[in-house]
Amino acid sequence: MTAVPASPLPVATPRGEALLRDLAALNLAASCEPADLWAASRDAWPRALLWTKAGTAPHPPDVVAWPADAEQVAAVVKFAAGREIPVVPVGGGSGICGGAVPVRGGIALDLKRLTAPLRIDLPARTALVGAGLNGQRLAELLDAQGATLGHHPSSIYAATVGGWLATRSAGQLSSKYGKIEDMVIAVEAVDGTGALLHTLDGPSAGPDLTQLLVGSEGTLGIITSARLRIWPRPLRRWLRGVRFPSVQHGLRAIRAVLRAGLRPSVARLSDPLDSLLAAAHGPQLPQSLKWVVLGARAEALHVALRAPLLLNRLVDALPKAALFVVGFDGDSEDDCAEEGEAALAICQSDDGEDLGPAPGEKWFANRYAASYRGSPLFSAGAFVDMLDVATTWDRVAALDAAVRRAVSPHAFTLATFTHAALEGCAIEFTLVGLAGATAEEIARSSRDDAETDLEEAEDRHDACWSAALGAVADGGATLSHHSGIGLARQVLLPREHGEGMRQLRALKKAFDPHGILNPGKLLL
Amino acid sequence: MNANLREDLAATSAAVVEEAQGGFRVTPPSIASLGRAVAVVRAWKLRLRVRGSGDAPVHAPQDGVLLDVGSLDRIASVDGATGIARVEAGCSLGALEAAARRAGCTLGPLLPSVRAGSVGAWLAGPTRGERGIPGARRETAALSVAAVLADGRIAESRAAPRSATGPDLDHLALGGSGRLCVVAAAWIRLFPMAPALASRWTCPSLPTAVLALERICLDRNAPARARVVAGGEGARLALAWEGLETAPMERDRAARTLGSLGLVQDAEQGANAWVREPSGGHPIEVDARWASLRGWSQQGEMQLLGMHAGGAFATLALSDARGAEEAAALARAAGARVIAPRRIRDSGPAWDALGAGAVWKRLIEALGVEEAQP
């Protein structure tokens, strides 16, 4: 038996080496080094993490290029269009849907060098930002000038501004500041012929080109910079935890808070299990649930995840209380407290119990942690996936129940109701299921065994994911609230758009007549 | 050709009238009929204009078709609790507002030309259905659009507060004047009804009044409505907020800002009515940045709504009997885009000005909405 090699990195192909020479002639930094090809072959899609565990990279690009400016992006696209070579824009690699996986090879265009221009104009409330700028770096640069974008997704440490725009990202303060598509004023982009487009920054007429490019996941154009709406950094933040007797009570209260005109920066309602986990004094949970949610010994996790139905029934037996974390930003303590107290009064009128600031502050301190907890579970033989969907208030409870029911035989489920708006909200489901062998076992196994294990893991993940997406589509909800479609969700895109798929294909023909931009995504 | 075309149009179940100056007026009685009529028009590669009501095209283009969606005026549902209405494109905003109010909701402040029109005209028109929302932002009122494609089939987006399922396809209909697809129906976002709280201020000058208004929008305390007129030693400014719990908070916070800018608060009595008083003379409507509004402010009266950090929709009226053309010329000189009256509307830069002229041509072709040149 031959053990799986420690670094089964992709190797340069003849096409890649030829492209490398062509790109060098265009004065582009580029590479066919195995480590670079591997890094650009995946993003944070759970399926890609399973590939990594199995020591395989099934979709490497032929070459990776690092353009320095929009003109170089245009030059690469023009070159690729003439030869019908796929061009896949790459940002921080934090996408969870496989949107940056170069399924047809070609050129992975890593945009992280596009950090210029950076012009912060706080008096005008705008910032002109290069698409490759890292989210956290942008937050720091704005902070240094007393400004904020108000966009704080848990991917912030890895993601780029261009990635946010390409996937219609949402931050944790979206109820107040909106999603990234609400923050963008104008973009510069390169279409599939290599032409530079500049959308309008000001009153304009006709269909809004910006909103057609934003969210297109690099299939219509490559965004190279954007003008964004910024705000003065709030000087104070008011946070509270409120315990409701049930999720239904909590949902009613969120609606009432928003209908009162209040715009909390944070409004997150956790399901009963998540609420127990968030308890300030530590969760009182059955042991099997602790194995799953707190990261546990691999053997115990395996045993627990073999019976997801049982785990979900254990959750059903838990107390029904739901924790609502609500927060308000403002320029003074009085302003924040004024809005906070008004929200609190509304919550209390629906049996909400004020738990004080501790639960809110605990959440705030750990607000980015969720995205970085998955790796130990993957190593221990599980998969963890996140499904963010959205619908109108009248359908939220039914959607929650339907997804849980569909997923229950396949995975253990947690949910948070968040990104609340006047007419509805998003639900973020966390799905934890059994994948296969542990990383340690894989490292000791043969290539054949690793491949078999990967196939089984992919089948299990598929079964869970298909059940969940099917329930979302059946419930009339949108398949993605803020993570895009990528490879993970595109199979049900025709159910989402219906005849709109033909509009989508027409847009593809118009913006990318050679079909080279991120092919294989959005079913394009 | 006309006989064959008339026959094809009549087969869609729509009422067909040949207009004196050429072209046909086609009035479909249902969305299915609208779909069939659009398919006929597109198959014949005719020029197509869409009429809802209010400030919309009245006549068919020569050798083309005017699609009158006025008969598609049903309000399928108004859900006051969720704040959503499902309506057909020809429904007048007056009727929708009345239905919304019965359910404890409202469409919020809208430009007069918009309010006089239909849902379809609002969404496909120059404002793209946008209106101000709390926090000094703008948002389209369309939660979801049902649009007729060139072959008559209907594309309808999911009614969700936000989504990330590719580009926002509703934006092929919003602001498109029916050129890429025709709005057949929509889910419309409604605001909860709330009493307005107004305040009135005296300012040293008209530009100062606009500057003060801009400042409170930059502080995210944007009012739902505002009015600026010359008066006293300089200018009078009135503002009204409409959030149920937030109106008094925002009014008081704005008062701190306005006071710090040297404005003097007047008696509140009558302010709420005053801020809504229709403009006299020959008003025009614009979409403008704050600098443009400041530039225009010395010319006459302004009523503002849809205020956001970058600018506002405004009704502008010259202080004497000068006509709309003159007001529009002054507004354009200040950098504003004229929305109404329709006869002097600025079409605005087309996609070629954005470097996307070739994209537009390919899009027209791919969507099958090419029109033969007259």
Structure description:
The complex is a heterodimer of chains A (524) and B (374). Chain A has 524 residues and is α+β, with helices and mostly antiparallel strands. Among the domains of chain A are: 14-110, Uridine Diphospho-n-acetylenolpyruvylglucosamine Reductase, domain 2 (2-Layer Sandwich), CATH 3.30.43.10; 118-232, Uridine Diphospho-n-acetylenolpyruvylglucosamine Reductase, domain 3 (2-Layer Sandwich), CATH 3.30.465.10; 236-294 and 319-367, Alpha-Beta Plaits, CATH 3.30.70. Chain A is built from 22 helices and 18 strands. In chain A, strand 17 and strand 18 (424-434) form a beta hairpin. In chain A, helix 3 packs antiparallel against helix 20 (447-474). The longest helix of chain A is centred in the C-terminal third of the chain and has 28 residues, at 447-474. Chain B has 374 residues and is of the alpha+beta class. Chain B has helices at residues 2-10, 31-43, 93-102, 112-115, 119-124, 206-218, 246-260, 271-276, 290-296, 324-333, 357-367, and strands spanning 15-18, 24-27, 47-51, 64-68, 75-79, 84-88, 105-106, 130-133, 137-140, 142-148, 154-156, 182-189, 191-192, 197-203, 225-231, 234-241, 264-265, 284-289, 300-308, 311-318, 337-340. In chain B, helix 6 packs antiparallel against helix 9 (290-296). Chain B starts with a helix and ends in a 7-residue tail after the last helix. The chains are: A alpha+beta (524), B alpha+beta (374). Chains A and B meet through strand 9, helix 9, strand 11, helix 15 and strand 16 of A and strand 11, strand 13, helix 7, strand 18 and helix 11 of B.
